[in-house]
Amino acid sequence: MHIEIDEISKAFGSTAALQPVSLAIPSGALVALLGPSGSGKTTLLRILGGLEFPTSGRVLFDGQDATGLTVQERRAGFVFQSYALFRHMTVFDNIAYGLNARPRASRPTRAEIARRVTKLLELIQLPDIGARYPSQLSGGQRQRVALARALAIEPRMLLLDEPFGALDAKVRKELRQGLRDIHDTTGLTTVFVTHDQEEAMELADLVVVMSMGKIEQIGKPQDIRARPASPFVREFISA
Amino acid sequence: MSDATRTEARPRFRPATQESPAARLTLIAVACVGLTILVFAPLVAVFIEALADGVGASLQSLASPDARDAIRLTLTIAAISVPLNAIFGVAAAWFITKFDFRGKAFLITLIDLPFSVSPVVAGLCIVLMFGTNSLIGGWLVANGFPVVFALPGIILATMFVTFPFVARELIPVMIEQGRAEEEVALTLGASGWRVFWTVTLPNIRWALLYGVLLCNARAMGEFGAVAVVSGKIRGETATIPTTIEMLYQEYLAVAAFSLAAVLTLLALVTLLLKTLLELRHADQLAATHRH
């Protein structure tokens, strides 16, 4: 799905989290929102997911105005920084949550839900953990379960907030490839937030560098490396 | 001499958080003495006094109409005020922890108010507001719905005094848990109502249970506010605690302590219930990192 952000701004009280920013995300792209904390990247992601509403501006999905759509109507697969797995549910029930939440008319049968959850567990290469609780999983496993849960609703896009932030360096590298693979398999337009320039450069097709609620530069990783648009970008990507 | 210095210099291997045996014994002794004097002895005394003239006399006093009415009234009060306070408490905690708004700190302070105000003052406030001489109270009495010296007033007083228990138990838990799980559930397409039942409530159920149990214990035991509002009319508005006081004032020790023993037993049953539930769901408790 093609996403267009048109002059979006966001203020919390009197503090501006986002200056008016514009950005076009081509269908099927893997995009990194890169910047230091307080740069407005998470706010932008939450606006895309419908968890936050912009003070001004519009969001367009496939050319249709989606600004007023509720979080449920957006159908965005959202992965949170801390993964936010439902701690009182098994992994199976976590992944099935979105399907079970559908209105009766469009809810798959119990057997169909089980089939889909099994398939997703295979996709994240953890076929045997359905009966476990989140507290019994490692950090990397949690992240993959959160991803499977987001994919279960057949989302129109995938939004990830610092998906590798809580992991150690080795697992981080493995899961980076995992996300790339899942993106390539599903073809979903994917946006992830990170403060790690190496991660953004290595993983994304398109990198959006942000600072102080503004977009500093949009470009392919190699272009940003070769021609940083501002002193901030030059300094940030060399860190 | 040299031997002694060597022994002293030898490092002792004791965990960093452990004290010397003498210090440990002292602390344990202080705790035991304190518990005995403050909790255990009075508890035993209640039952000894209740059974001073034998089990028969004790049971007979409990079978008297006044005692039976008091027990029935107290159970009715708890049955009405505890569920209502559970609902209000969950609503207040939800509102405070899941939303940002102006005046939040003030609202949290307001929830604590019943803890800091004397129950007698709370009772007087209700009398002032709903008494026959007040505007609202006069109108209510004229329309056949008296509040003061009647069940509604007692329930109002009980609810005021016990309001903080549920909310106070829930707010820290809900703050610690944050909003992320609720937000995820919303992105997965669940309605707000569904999120509450399937995510919020299961996550707080233990804290909620604790709050409800504490609230219940206090609701059955409340004296001050109820004494002011109820008028202590025997067979009508006298609860267990107020009846105990009246019996005691009339030197009916066995009757007073028998009723006191009933109240104590109700509290002990509550605690037992809590412990049993905890044992039964120990694995779930561990999984959700709570208590």
Give structural notes.
The complex is a heterodimer of chains A (about 240) and B (about 290). Chain A has nine helices and ten strands. A six-stranded mixed beta sheet of chain A has the order 6-7-8-3-9-10, sandwiched between helices. In chain A, strands 2-1-4-5 form a four-stranded antiparallel beta sheet, covered by helices on one side. With about 240 residues, chain A is of the alpha/beta class. Chain A is globular, with a radius of gyration of 18 Å. Chain B is mainly alpha-helical. Chain B folds into two domains: about 30 residues; about 230 residues, MetI-like (MetI-like fold). In chain B, about 80% of the residues lie in helices and about 0% in strands. The longest helix of chain B has about 35 residues. The radius of gyration of chain B is 25 Å and the shape is globular. The model of chain B has no long low-confidence stretch (mean pLDDT about 85). The chains are: A alpha/beta (about 240), B mainly alpha (about 290).
Distance between the termini of chain B: 53 Å
The profile of the biggest β sheet of chain A is: 6 strands, mixed
- Give the integer mean of the pLDDT values of chain B: 87
Basic shape of chain B? globular
Under CATH, the homologous superfamily of the largest domain in chain B reads MetI-like
Low-confidence stretches of chain B: none
Element order of chain A: H for helix, E for strand: EEEHEEHEHHHEHEHEEHH
Provide tags for this entry.
heterodimer; A: 239 residues; alpha/beta; 6-stranded mixed β-sheet; 4-stranded antiparallel β-sheet; B: 291 residues; mainly alpha; MetI-like fold; 2 domains; 14 helices; globular
